# Entry
Amino acid sequence: TWAKATATGLKPGKTYVYRVGDATGWCDGIYEFKTDSAPKDGFNFILFSDEHAEPADEYAQPTITQTREKAIEICPDASFIFALGDNVDVPWRETSYKEYFEREKMESIPLATVPGGTHDMMITEFRASLFDYHFNMPNQCDVNDDESYSGYIENVGGNYWYLYGDVLVIATTYNAYEEADVQKAYIEKAVREASSQNPNIK
# Structure
């Protein structure tokens, strides 16, 4: 069972607390996060790639955890983490995602990611990726739009974009079977749509 919730009306520079639960019970912890103040001189973020979370890998997991903790130590004021894919090793195992999220600071720093072209997508007829159940990807490509349809795979999602203040972030899922002009069409469409929300985007 997976569930997603959306928090609205958040104000900049404020600390919020939350917990997770449903009719059957609540999690043990109460967590907190702080929203950014309106950045005047830019902002910092942390970039990760190819973490390949997998609880059975006793060698790799301590290294991944140490790398993440070190990155947050070096950049404690990071506004968010952006992961470039292959977050887990086996995308149809919930234990892989459990390992991925049970890391230091994951309860209090925002995370954005784009599905990796191999491990987040390894899909066969019998093994569907669980990627889309765990991540929010706003403004995804329209699967019915032949002009800019790009990267979309069931249970994985596709290209998407979001605004962080006045910065436009476009996440594209590379797919070797697609033409470059399709990706280009999606990027141009994303810029148009985002500009209609904020004409001063960077």
Summary: Helices lie at 60-74, 94-101, 131-134, 180-197. The radius of gyration is 18 Å. Residues 180-197 form the longest helix (18 residues). DSSP finds four helices and nine strands in the chain.
